[in-house]
Design a protein that fits this description.
This protein has about 850 residues and is mainly beta. The chain is built from 7 helices and 46 strands. The N terminus is likely disordered.
Length: about 850
C-alpha cells in the first residue's frame, strides 16, 4: 500500500471512529428552543411562537407546552424575526440570527397587554445580517412558484433565478461568478462537489428542499474543493409535524407529463419525509436546433429523509436518494440519422448524528456514500453517427465522512473539523471517426477537403495527384482511429482513486458592531498527482446601526480541485488532447489541483422596513483555471485546465419584504473571465487551444439580471409570478468572426441567420464569399480582421426572456384538504435565442421555445 493511501485510510478510520454512536450525518439546520415567561417569571403555556424571515418567506410556528417551552427543528442558518402572541399579553417580536447547527436556548418575558402594546427592539434589523460573506437565501414557499421549464434540473433553475452571480448555460448548467462549474452542494451537511447537471448526475428534486443558502461571497474555512458558489440546502423534515403531503399531475408542450408526490409525518421524536417524482418529455435537453427533435427523455427520483431524536442531546438523521435519467441525444439537421442515448443512475446514502454537550458545544458527524453511473450508447449503425461514433460506461463512487465540533462561548462561535473522502473512478470509452471529411489527410489546391479513403500518410497526397496537398490542419493523432480509412476503434479503460482529506478551523467573533471570521484550512489531494494546499481565510463586517448599513471585506486562499468526470482519460492526453498524437507519452502531465487568491468587498443596505440592497465585488486570480472540452455535440465532456485565469465582477440584489402579499426582487451580475494558455487535457480539443495569448472564455458575460415580481392573496389564495431575465450574451469560441461563419455548413448558417449585405443564407444557397458586411441575427459576429480574443470576441446576441406562472393553492377554500391549480408559460414571447454556438466548451444549444405547462394537485 502506498504512503498516501495509508495516510488516507488512517484518517478515514479516525473520522469513522469518532462517529461510532451511529454511522451518521449532520442535520444542516439549527435548533431553536426556549421558554416563555410572564412578568412574575411564571411560565406562559399556549403561546403562539413564530419564526419568520421577512425576505425569503421562511416560516415555522409552534405552541408552547404546559411548561411554557417551545422548539423549532431544522432551521436553516439565516436572519429571522421571532414573534410571540398570547392571550392577555402584548405581542412581542425581536431579531434572531441562526448562524449554524449549534442549538440555541432562549428565554422571553411577555408584558401584560394593559402595560404595553408591544415590545419591538430593533426588530427591523432582521432584514439584514452581519455575515462577512455575501449570500442569497431562498425558501420553498417562494421558489416552488417560480415559472420554469427545466426537466431534471429544477434546482439549477432555482439557483439561476435567485442570485445575480450566475450566467445561464444549457442543460442545467450555469457559470458561477466567472467559473464553469466550481460549485459545491452541501445537502443537510453532506458535501458534494461533483457536477450536478442532469447530464452528469441527477439532481435533488426541488420539492424535497426546504431552503437554499447561496454563498457567492468569500467561502469560510469549512468549504473546500469547488467554492466559487456554495449551495447550502436544507431538506424538508416530518419531525414534530402532523401528517402532511401532496400529489400533483402535470402536462404541457412537447408531450411533457409528470407526477410528483410528497408525504410526511412525525412526532416529537420520530419523523419521515418522502418525495417521489417522475417526468417524461419530448424536450429533455437543450437542442442544437431551435425546434427540438430526437429529444425524448424521462427522469425518476425517490428521496427519503428519516429523523430520530431520542432525547434533548442527540439527533439522528438519514437521507436516502435514488434517481435515474434516460434521454436521447438531440439531432441537428447535419445529423439526422444518429440515434444516440444516455442513461444516468444515481444513488446516495447519508446518515447523520448530532450530540450536544452542555448548552454550547455541538458535535456533528457526516458520513456519506454516493455513486453516479453514466452509460452512453452510440447508434446501432456506427456510420449514422457523424463525424464520429462514441460510447461510454463510467462510474464515479464517492464515500467519506465529515466531522466537526462547534463551540459557542461569549463572543466566539468556534468550529473545527475534518473531512475525509475517496472518489473511485472507472472509465470505459470508445471512439471511431466516421466521416472522411472531418479530418482529411489531403486537400485540393483551393484547400477543399478530399475524402481519398485509401490515403493515411500526408506524403502520399502528391503521389495520388500532383494538385493535391497535405492538409496543414491535419490532426495526426486521429488518423489511426478513422474508420473510413481502415482504422480501428480507440479503446480506453482506466481505473483510479482520488483520496482527499482536510482539516479546518474557523471562528466567528463579535466585537460590538464588528463581526470577524478568521479561519484556516489544509487540504491534501492524492489522485493522479499529490498536492497540499494551505489556505488562510479572513473576513470582517461592520454594522452601522444608525443607517442600517453593513460594510464587509474578505480574503480567501482556496485550493481548487480538478473535475472528476472523465478525469483519467483527459489527464492522459496532455496538451492538445488525443488529436496531437501524444496520448500515453510520458511527458503528458495529468490535471492537477490549482490555487486561487480571492478578494471580496461589499455592502448591505436596509431602506426602511421594506427594502434591502446587497452588493458584492469579487476578484479572483487562479493558477490552473478549469473548464470542460465537449466532444462534438454530445453531452460527453472532458476536463481541461489552463495555465491561469483572472476573473472579476459584481453581483447585487434588491429585495422587498412581503407587503400585503406583494413581493419583488431584482438580481444582477457582471463578470470578466480572462484565461491564459497553455491548455492541458481534453480529448479532441480545437478552437482556442493554440491561441497565443489571453482570451475571453465562454463564462464571460458583461451583464445579466433577473427581476421577479409575485403576488399571493391571503395565505393560500390566488397567486401570480412574473420573471424578466436579461442576458447580454456569452462568448462564442467556435465561430470567432465572419470569415469562420462563411465556412459553416448550410444548416449552421441558416441556424444563426447568416446574411451577406442583408441577403440571408439558405440551405440551397449557403454563403461561401461576401463582398459586403456579413451579419447574423443570433451572433454579434465581428467582421474578419476586427475580432480580438480579449477585447472584441464573438458573442451570443443579447436577449430578454419573460416567464409567467399563476394559480391557486386552495381552489375550493377548504380548511384541511385542498386542491391546487397552476399554469406556467416560459419564453412568453417565443424568442429564438442561443445559449452558445459551436462552443469548444459546451457545443450548440438553443433556448427552449415558448412552453406551456398546467398542473392540478391535492394537498393535505
Amino acid at each position: 500500500m502506498s504512503t498516501r493511501n495509508w495516510l488516507f485510510g488512517l484518517s478515514l478510520a479516525f473520522a469513522i471512529l469518532i462517529s461510532s454512536p451511529l454511522f451518521s450525518q449532520s442535520i444542516n439546520g439549527g435548533t431553536v428552543s426556549g421558554t416563555v415567561l410572564d412578568p412574575s417569571q411564571m411560565v406562559v403555556p399556549q403561546t403562539y411562537v413564530e419564526i419568520v424571515n421577512p425576505v425569503t418567506g421562511y416560516k415555522q410556528t409552534v405552541m408552547t407546552d404546559d411548561a411554557g417551552q417551545f422548539r423549532f427543528n431544522n432551521v436553516p442558518p439565516n436572519m429571522y424575526e421571532i414573534r410571540l402572541t398570547a392571550p392577555g399579553f402584548a405581542p412581542k417580536k425581536q431579531p434572531l440570527e441562526v448562524q449554524n447547527s449549534a442549538p440555541m436556548s432562549l428565554a422571553f418575558t411577555l408584558q401584560m397587554a394593559e402595560v404595553s402594546t408591544s415590545v419591538d427592539v430593533n426588530a427591523s434589523l432582521a432584514l439584514i445580517d452581519t455575515d462577512p460573506s455575501a449570500h442569497t437565501d431562498a425558501d420553498s414557499s417562494a421558489f416552488m412558484k417560480l415559472p420554469r421549464f427545466d426537466p431534471a434540473s429544477g434546482l439549477s433553475g432555482i439557483i439561476n433565478n435567485s442570485t445575480g452571480g450566475t450566467a445561464a448555460d444549457a442543460n442545467g448548467f450555469f457559470h458561477p461568478l466567472g467559473d464553469h462549474g466550481q460549485v459545491s452542494f452541501v445537502i443537510d451537511g453532506q458535501p458534494i462537489s461533483d457536477q450536478q447537471s442532469k447530464v452528469f448526475s441527477t439532481q435533488l428534486p426541488p420539492n424535497a428542499v426546504q431552503s437554499l443558502q447561496l454563498i457567492t461571497g468569500a467561502p469560510d474555512a469549512q468549504y473546500g474543493d469547488k467554492s466559487s458558489l456554495v449551495v447550502n440546502a436544507t431538506t424538508k423534515s416530518g419531525l414534530g409535524s402532523r401528517p402532511f403531503g401532496s400529489f400533483e399531475a402535470s402536462g404541457g408542450s412537447f408531450g411533457t407529463y409528470g407526477e410528483n408526490a410528497t408525504f410526511a409525518w412525525g412526532t416529537a421524536k420520530l419523523g419521515n419525509f418522502i418525495a417521489l417524482n417522475s417526468l417524461r418529455t419530448g424536450h429533455f435537453l437543450d437542442t442544437p436546433e431551435s425546434q427540438p427533435f430526437h429529444d425524448i427523455g424521462n427522469s425518476e427520483t425517490i428521496f427519503d429523509r428519516i429523523d430520530f431524536v431520542p432525547g434533548a442531546r442527540d439527533a439522528f438523521h438519514l437521507n436516502l436518494f435514488l434517481a435515474r435519467n434516460w434521454f436521447q441525444v438531440p439531432n441537428s439537421y447535419d445529423q439526422l440519422a444518429q440515434d444516440q442515448k444516455q442513461r444516468v443512475l444515481t444513488w446516495n446514502v447519508a446518515p447523520g448524528y448530532q450530540h450536544t454537550f452542555g448548552a454550547s458545544t455541538l458535535v456533528t458527524i457526516n458520513p456519506f456514500a454516493r455513486r453516479d453511473q453514466v452509460n452512453y450508447y452510440g447508434s446501432r449503425d456506427p456510420f449514422a453517427d457523424t463525424p464520429a461514433t462514441e460510447s461510454q460506461n463510467r462510474f464515479l463512487t464517492n464515500y467519506g465522512v465529515r466531522a466537526d465540533v462547534a463551540i459557542a462561548h461569549k463572543r466566539h462561535n468556534f468550529k473545527f473539523g475534518t473531512q475525509m473522502q475517496q472518489t473511485q473512478l472507472l472509465e470505459n470509452f470508445t471512439l471511431g471517426i466516421t466521416s472522411p471529411l472531418f479530418n482529411p489527410v489531403c486537400v485540393g489546391a483551393t484547400g477543399a477537403p478530399l475524402a481519398l479513403l485509401g490515403v493515411t500518410n500526408p506524403s502520399q497526397c502528391g503521389v495520388v495527384n500532383p494538385a493535391y496537398l497535405a492538409n496543414p490542419s491535419l490532426l495526426p493523432g486521429l488518423v489511426p482511429y478513422d474508420l473510413t480509412r481502415g482504422g480501428s476503434y480507440f479503446l480506453f479503460h482506466g481505473a483510479g482513486n482520488v483520496n482527499q482529506f482536510a482539516f479546518y478551523a474557523t471562528d466567528d467573533i463579535k466585537f460590538g458592531d464588528f463581526s470577524v471570521n478568521v479561519g484556516f484550512r489544509d487540504d491534501q489531494y492524492n489522485g493522479l498527482v499529490s498536492r497540499n494546499g494551505l489556505q488562510p481565510r479572513l473576513g470582517f463586517s461592520y454594522l452601522v446601526n444608525r443607517t442600517g448599513t453593513v460594510l464587509r471585506a474578505a480574503y480567501s486562499r482556496t485550493f481548487e480541485t480538478p473535475f472528476n468526470e472523465n478525469l483519467l482519460l483527459s489527464s492522459a492526453t496532455g496538451s492538445g488532447g488525443l488529436a496531437q498524437n501524444i496520448f500515453g507519452a510520458k511527458a503528458s502531465l495529468p490535471l492537477e489541483p490549482g490555487f486561487r487568491n480571492q478578494f471580496n468587498g461589499g455592502l448591505q443596505q436596509k431602506f426602511g422596513h421594506w427594502l434591502v440592497f446587497d452588493g458584492d465585488y469579487f476578484w479572483k486570480y487562479t493558477h490552473n483555471g478549469y473548464d470542460f472540452d465537449v466532444l462534438f455535440n454530445t453531452p460527453i465532456t472532458f476536463p481541461i485546465a489552463w495555465h491561469n485565469s483572472k476573473l472579476d465582477g459584481l453581483t447585487g440584489r434588491l429585495s422587498t419584504v412581503n407587503i400585503h402579499g406583494f413581493q419583488a426582487y431584482t438580481t444582477f451580475g457582471h463578470t470578466r473571465a480572462r484565461y491564459f494558455p497553455p491548455e492541458v487535457g481534453g480529448l479532441i480539443f480545437q478552437g482556442t487551444a493554440s491561441v497565443p495569448g489571453v482570451f475571453r472564455i465562454d463564462h464571460d458575460q458583461a451583464f445579466q439580471q433577473t427581476t421577479n415580481i409575485r403576488y399571493q392573496r391571503g395565505k393560500d389564495g390566488l397567486w401570480g409570478t412574473f420573471i424578466w431575465r436579461f442576458d447580454s450574451g456569452l462568448v462564442v469560441t467556435g465561430v470567432p468572426d465572419s470569415a469562420a461563419a462563411l465556412a459553416l455548413t448550410p444548416a449552421q448558417q441558416v441556424d444563426i441567420g447568416l446574411a451577406c449585405n442583408g441577403a440571408p443564407a439558405t440551405l440551397q444557397s449557403p454563403l461561401r464569399g461576401c463582398a459586403g458586411p456579413v451579419t447574423s441575427t443570433l451572433l454579434t459576429l465581428p467582421q474578419a480582421g476586427t475580432e480580438n480574443n480579449d477585447h472584441n470576441p464573438d458573442r451570443v446576441k443579447a436577449r430578454n426572456m419573460f416567464d409567467i406562472a399563476f394559480g391557486t393553492d386552495n381552489l375550493l377554500r377548504a380548511e384541511r384538504h385542498k386542491m391546487a391549480l397552476r399554469f406556467t408559460v416560459t419564453n412568453l414571447t417565443n424568442k429564438v435565442a442561443l445559449y452558445n454556438f459551436l462552443s469548444t466548451f459546451s457545443g450548440t444549444h438553443f433556448i427552449p421555445p415558448r412552453t406551456y405547462q398546467a398542473s392540478v394537485g391535492y394537498v393535505f
